[in-house]
Amino acid sequence: MKPARTLKHIEAPYTWSQVKHGEWMAKQLQAHLDEWCPKLFGYHMLKLGGLSCELASGHCNIQHQVCIDQYNPLHNVIADTLHLPFLKKSFDTCILAHQLDYCNDPHRLLREVDRVMVDDGYLILTGSNPVSWLGVKGLLPWNRKKYPWRGQMFMPMRVKDWLGVLNYEVVYSEKFAVLPATRHLACSAWAESALSEHFPSLGGLYFIVARKRTYPLKPIKPTWKLRRQLAPLRVN
C-alpha cells in the first residue's frame, strides 16, 4: 500500500468540465447530496474546492455557505485548504468533493477540517474508487496525465479508517456509478442498475457521510461512598 502523503505537487481541477465524464459524475453525486441536504442542520456550511462549489446545496437548511477555491467563479473565499482562516468549531457541515484525491497530504487536510468542525457536525466525502472501471482506465499510459487519473485514488475502507482515527462515525457509505452514461442513456441506466445490484463494490465513485463524535479521554467513574457504621455513644 502506497503512503497517502506524497512530495509530488498535484494540481486539483476547479471545475467538473476538466474531468473525464465530469458532468455525469457531478449528476451522480448531486443525486446523493440532494437526499442528505434536508437532513443537515446548523448555521454554517463549508465547501472545499471548486468541485464542491459546483454541487448545488441551495435547498439545504443551512443558509450561510462558504465556498473556498482559487479559480472557480462560484467561490467567495480564497484560502489554502491546509491552513483554513477560521476559528475552531466554526462549521456544522463540510463537503469535500474529490479533495482527498488531489491533495498531497490528505491526513493533514482531514485534521484541518476536523479543527473547524463543531461537535456532532457532518462531514461529506466523495472520491474515486480505484477498484472499478475508473481505476482500471488509469493504468493506461495516455490517461495518467488526465483527470481524474492525475490524482490519487484511495479505497473507501482506507478513508473510513482515517475517519475512525479522528473519532468520526460513518453513518452512510455507498459505492455507485459502475459505467459512465454518456451515450445511449436508456441502455446505460439499465446496465447501471443491473451491475450495481450484483457488483456494488465495483462502483467508480463513493459517497461517505460521517459525523464527528467527542469521547472523553478518561471515563468518569461514579464515586462510591462507604456507609458510616453505627457506634455507641460514650457517656462521660
Automatic annotation (TrEMBL):
Cross-referenced SUPFAM superfamilies, in alphabetical order? S-adenosyl-L-methionine-dependent methyltransferases (SSF53335)
Q: Does the keyword Transferase apply?
A: yes
Sorted UniProt keywords: Methyltransferase, Transferase
Q: Name one GO biological process term.
A: methylation
Q: Which GO terms describe its molecular function?
A: methyltransferase activity
The Methyltransferase type domain is annotated at 74-125
Descriptive protein name:
SAM-dependent methyltransferase
A Pfam family: Methyltransf_11
